[in-house]
């Protein structure tokens, strides 16, 4: 299950195959390349989150000069990290931990371990991810627990994901805690809720994560996928705000989302259920 949790765009690709059942055609490839290159340009302008998005989106062979762009993005992140951009350091350390092409546990540890020792609990959480990737689960859980206990939503999220499907009560508890601490982390809680068949609350969780993200739209896509479940669609009005965001940012199926945004009224009616 770790690919589900650590390779964000892999989830996006599964979503694509399962819910759209169609391959990239020439027009979709053009749109995908446009979005990819937009993030590459933003990365050149020292936007660390845009650099991260390049690695989330990358699919080998889809983009011209993709290897060159990715290498330049790594160099940009390295420069930003050297300039004490902590977010860039976290992103770079995580890429070295989980990215197949750039995986280097020694480099990941060199970045994340000192940050963790200095008190950055998000770094401790990601450093735990290094140990999990290495198969050292005990140390990974220790670091996830430490980070979560000391206020890192990322730590709680990774701890909840660690328990996913092995201990769903623990997974629910920690991902819910992460979601309450930082709405960006509601994605993991949405996965747990969806697995438990709680589709309405899962939809709300994905929505929360979607609207709090600057670039990453996997939560938005999962919200759309979850909305298609009959029980959600029958009880909640179509999410126009969601479609507007996907219309602007989706790397494919753009026209579909734009049509939905145009044809959906602005009002929303929610059931009186407990949101995550």
UniProtKB/TrEMBL annotation:
Record key words, sorted: Antibiotic resistance, Disulfide bond, Hydrolase, Repeat, Signal, TPR repeat
InterPro entries: HcpB-like, Sel1-like, TPR-like_helical_dom_sf
UniProt catalytic activity: a beta-lactam + H2O = a substituted beta-amino acid
Gene3D superfamilies in the cross-refs: Tetratricopeptide repeat domain
Gene Ontology molecular function: any one: beta-lactamase activity
Enzyme Commission (EC) number: 3.5.2.6
UniProt name for this protein: beta-lactamase
Organism of derivation: Campylobacter showae CSUNSWCD
